[in-house]
Amino acid sequence: MRVLLGIAVMALACADVNPVWGYEPVVNYQLHCMGCHLADGSGQPGRVPSIRRTLVRFSQSAEGRGYVVRVPGVAQSPLSNQDTATLLNWMARNLSDLKLPAGFTDYCAAEIQSLRAHPLVTVKTLRARLLRTPLAPPIAQPLAPPRAH
Ligand code: HEC
To answer: For the segment 21-74, what is each residue's pLDDT rounded down to a tens digit?
Structure first.
């Protein structure tokens, strides 16, 4: 009984242990994000930032996660909380020059739900502050040299 209760509580806290999505995350990326962020996440100079060195990095802090989920393109997408969590976890593994640190905390539906309810107003200021924060040791080593734009 106690075990069952424990499982039920865990399921409530982070309900995407067995993710169920309408489309595969790669398809959701193509449909909702790729138009701006491009197929490899490298963005468009001067208009859309590359997420290849920021998503994993920002995901390492509470403030950074708040930024990632609350940027307009994420917070206001038509994707469900579950699909958004699954998509960000897929992006962190597939569109990043930074190695996923051991113990990386995946996004889950409950986190997306609570964060996206408070859209960002100071997008640029917060982004600049996050970029000034030094890289945490597990992700200090990029996998590949920066892409030239
Ligand atoms: C209309 C263009 C557009 C679309 C569509 C879009 N984004 Fe973005 N995204 C941006 C811009 C511009 C920024 C920089 C922050 C800002 O000004 O909103 C950004 C920032 C981000 C960031 C933070 C990275 C950083 O370095 O600041 C993430 C993560 C992100 N977007 C993910 C997504 C995801 C996931 C989707 C699809 C569900 C998406 N975006 C759709 C334009 C877009």
So the answer is: 579 999 999 999 999 999 999 999 999 999 999 999 999 999 999 999 999 999
* CATH code, 118: 1.10.760.10
66 C-alpha to ligand 1 centroid (Å): 13
Average pLDDT across the chain, whole number: 85
Distance 34 CA to ligand 1 centre (A): 10
Q: Ligand 1: does its nearest atom lie under 6 Å from the Cβ of 6?
A: no
Atom of ligand 1 nearest to the CA of 72: 18
Phi-psi region of 38 (alpha: psi -120 to 50; beta: other; left: phi over 0): left
Alpha carbons 114 and 123: distance in angstroms, whole number = 18
Q: Measured from the CB, is residue 120 less than 6 Å from ligand 1?
A: no
Residues 115, 64 contacting (CB under 8 angstroms): no
0.90 exceeded by pTM: no
The domain containing residue 89 runs over which residues? Answer: 27-137
